């Protein structure tokens, strides 16, 4: 008997995972109406994945805005166009950086936490115990987290954008001496709510759904071992990041 | 109390003719390994039936079949008139509402306090006034000796205490069937004695059918009405505890006297020991 197993096909494995994830999405959507019974649980999850992520989102938003302000100010000054700093920063944040960086940070902070929590519930039979108490874990555990991710992501992206603009203002206006009125008036006259701000909101909603789907799927299907949970959390970050950037490209192409 | 002392043990009793659980021709293989090879088994209503057997013989898997957590490859599992492998999810959940299950590792919800863990099934399925709910939960916690621990979190409990909380949760809705999967592990002699009394009281006063998966023969003999000995994918023996403890078959003799030699191999299948150590063919 050979002790060397035939290595599984990575492509077949990946396709099977994607298919299983798609089926899992339909199961979550099927459980959403029942999960409305657990509204308190959904609110609790919005607090955990949303409010508890605020510190990292605000800090990163501020620094991203400051870096953007500094880089763009120097680039624009070559062409004598520093007056457009507010506009360029706002458009970059609203349309791209806000939703994308928020999703990447969300995957690292809230996504891993969701995966580890559900994975440990699987490993310690808590999900089986719920099933045995005639409580559907998809409705009680998974769907509230899924909804919380979709609700929290656009709100977090808005906070990220606000702090990013504040950071750019600190660098451009307070530090480098750009006129305050020019900064704000150019921004407000160039940014359109529907074509710019809402583009970011649609993206955030999509990223929220995808990142939370990946996080819950990885947690729910993880092997019930410490190693399994560790791999699942890693996969959550990797797959969420790749999915976010790929979906961003597709949505940008359609929403341009 | 042995089975012979229990006046309700009578094999022509109506509860035996109309068992709560009837299993016929159960066949299961997991990861290529045969677990059950034609198991037939009846769990009578209102009795305490123990399932015993060597580790890894599928006792917990059998419980997972009974509760519909795992579908068999073949065979029929009828619980209270419903074939659990064939009924829909709603019907299965309806059936599970009538079953209390004590998990091997307690499976307490780690985010909730002891009180909330026990209250969980009540909150999910019944809209009880808070005061009534509180009284029910405290009554069950009192029964397992942990009323004073109601506000503790599971992480603050010992293994034995967690098991007792899980037991309180399993009995909180006074189910028709309670499945105890290794209920005596980690219990000190005082707690063990009290839990044995509780299981017997629940069975005698409320007529709750109980399935006891355990290895502790002394404890099982005190409360069980009958024992199924599971080995080699089949029912190796079945009867009253005292009858089986006499060890009249090779299976019961080996299992109840704890001998390494017998029909149940102590060693997991492995290549020849001497060959593996590189000693085969070596000069003496």
Describe the overall structure.
The complex is a heterodimer of chains A (256) and B (284). Chain A has 256 residues and is an all-alpha fold. Chain A is built from nine helices and no strands. Chain A has one domain. Chain A is elongated. Chain B is of the alpha/beta class and 284 residues long. Chain B has two domains: 198 residues, P-loop containing nucleotide triphosphate hydrolases (Rossmann fold); 63 residues, no CATH class. In chain B, helix 4 packs parallel to helix 6 and helix 5 packs across helix 6. The N terminus of chain B is likely disordered. The chains are: A mainly alpha (256), B alpha/beta (284). At the A-B interface, helix 5 of A face helix 3 and helix 4 of B.
Features:
heterodimer, A: 256 residues, 9 helices, 84% helix, B: 284 residues, alpha/beta, Rossmann fold, 2 domains, six-stranded mixed sheet, 11 helices, 10 strands, 36% helix, disordered N terminus
SSE blueprint and pairings:
The complex is a heterodimer of chains A (256) and B (284).
Chain A: H1 10-35, H2 39-49, H3 54-78, H4 85-123, H5 126-132, H6 137-175, H7 180-190, H8 193-220, H9 226-255
Helix pairs in contact in A: 1-6, 2-6, 3-4, 3-6, 4-6, 4-7, 4-8, 4-9, 6-8, 8-9
Chain B: H1 14-17, E1 21-30, E2 33-43, E3 48-52, H2 59-66, E4 74-79, E5 82-83, H3 89-96, E6 99-102, H4 114-125, H5 130-143, H6 159-171, E7 177-181, H7 189-206, E8 209-213, H8 217-223, E9 226-231, E10 234-239, H9 241-245, H10 250-257, H11 273-276
Parallel strand pairs in B: 3-8, 3-9, 6-7, 7-8
Antiparallel strand pairs in B: 1-2, 1-4, 4-5, 9-10
């Amino acid at each position: 008997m050979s002790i060397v197993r035939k290595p599984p096909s990575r492509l077949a494995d990946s396709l099977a995972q994607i298919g299983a994830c798609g089926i899992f999405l339909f199961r979550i959507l099927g459980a959403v109406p029942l999960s409305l019974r657990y509204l308190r649980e959904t609110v609790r999850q919005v607090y955990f994945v949303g409010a508890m992520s605020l510190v990292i989102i605000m800090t990163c938003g501020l620094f991203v805005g400051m870096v953007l302000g500094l880089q763009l100010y120097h680039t624009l000054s070559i062409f004598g166009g520093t007056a457009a700093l507010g506009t360029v920063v706002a458009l970059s944040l609203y349309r791209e950086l806000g939703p994308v960086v928020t999703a990447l940070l969300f995957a690292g902070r809230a996504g891993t936490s969701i995966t580890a929590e559900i994975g440990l519930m699987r490993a310690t039979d808590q999900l089986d115990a719920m099933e045995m108490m005639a409580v559907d874990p998809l409705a009680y555990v998974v769907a509230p987290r899924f909804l919380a991710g979709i609700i929290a992501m656009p709100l977090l992206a808005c906070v990220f954008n606000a702090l990013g603009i504040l950071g750019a203002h600190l660098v451009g206006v307070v530090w480098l001496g750009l006129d305050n009125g020019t900064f704000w008036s150019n921004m407000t006259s160039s940014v359109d709510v529907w074509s710019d701000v809402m583009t970011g909101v649609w993206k955030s909603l999509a990223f929220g759904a995808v990142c939370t789907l990946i996080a819950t799927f990885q947690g729910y299907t993880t092997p019930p071992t410490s190693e399994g949970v560790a791999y699942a959390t890693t996969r959550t970050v990797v797959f969420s990041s790749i999915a976010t950037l790929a979906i961003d490209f597709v949505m940008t192409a359609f929403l341009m | 109390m042995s089975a012979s002392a229990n006046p309700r043990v009578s094999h022509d009793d109506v509860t035996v003719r109309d068992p709560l659980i009837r299993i016929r021709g159960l066949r299961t293989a997991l990861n290529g390994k045969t677990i059950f090879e034609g198991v037939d088994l009846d769990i009578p209503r209102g009795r305490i039936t123990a399932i015993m057997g060597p580790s890894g013989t599928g006792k917990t898997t059998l419980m997972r079949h009974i509760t519909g957590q795992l579908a068999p490859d073949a065979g029929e599992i009828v619980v209270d008139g419903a074939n659990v492998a064939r009924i829909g999810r709603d019907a299965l959940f309806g059936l599970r509402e009538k079953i209390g299950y004590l998990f091997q590792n307690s499976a307490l919800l780690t985010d909730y306090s002891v009180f909330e863990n026990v209250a969980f099934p009540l909150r999910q399925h019944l809209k009880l006034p808070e005061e009534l709910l509180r009284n029910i939960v405290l009554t069950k916690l009192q029964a397992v000796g942990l009323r004073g621990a109601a506000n503790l979190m599971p992480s603050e409990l010992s293994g034995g205490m967690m098991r007792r909380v899980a037991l309180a949760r399993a009995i909180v809705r006074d189910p028709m069937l309670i499945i105890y999967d290794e209920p005596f592990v980690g219990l000190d002699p005082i707690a063990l004695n009290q839990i044995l009394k509780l299981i017997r009281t629940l069975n005698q006063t409320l007529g709750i059918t109980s399935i006891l998966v355990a290895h502790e023969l002394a404890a099982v003999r005190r409360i069980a009405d009958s024992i199924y000995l599971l080995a080699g994918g089949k029912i190796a023996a079945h009867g009253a505890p005292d009858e089986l403890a006499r060890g009249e078959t090779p299976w019961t003799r080996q299992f109840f006297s704890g001998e390494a030699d017998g029909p149940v191999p102590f060693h997991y299948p492995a290549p020849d020991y001497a060959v593996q150590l590189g000693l085969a063919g070596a000069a003496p």
